[in-house]
Write a structure and sequence with these properties.
The protein has 98 residues and is of the alpha/beta class. It has one domain. 16% of the residues lie in helices and 37% in strands. Strands 1, 2, 3, 4, 5, 6 and 7 form a 7-stranded mixed beta sheet that branches. A hairpin with a 4-residue loop joins β6 and β7. The longest helix is centred in the last third of the chain and has 16 residues.
């Protein structure tokens, strides 16, 4: 699952059925940490993305099956310590594209 961000298109969800991986892909941001609503940088390589933001993104399927799969992914991540309870956000690594 890819939360994709570009200055032109903003946020959108790609590969929404891939519940095994989760990352933020930044296009056109070089080495900066852009201000993105619902996304907080932990460091240059990791962010916290609001759990409730992902289902609201363009590209997120609006089906009960998808929501169940997403909730299971979040539960798995929480079990690994990758969910910040204070902010209700899931940790994702950052991939940068030119």
């Amino acid at each position: 699952m890819i939360v994709d961000h570009s200055p032109r298109d903003g946020l959108r969800l790609l590969e929404p059925e891939d519940f095994k991986g989760f990352k933020l892909r930044l296009s056109g941001h070089a080495d900066v940490r852009p201000a993105i609503g619902g996304v907080r940088f932990v460091d240059d390589g990791n962010v916290l993305i609001g759990v409730d933001l992902v289902p609201a993104l363009p590209g997120a399927p609006d089906t009960d099956d998808w929501r169940r799969g997403y909730q299971a992914m979040v539960a798995y991540a929480a079990g690994k310590g990758w969910v910040d309870d204070a902010t209700n956000a899931i940790r994702a690594h950052v991939e940068r594209l030119p």
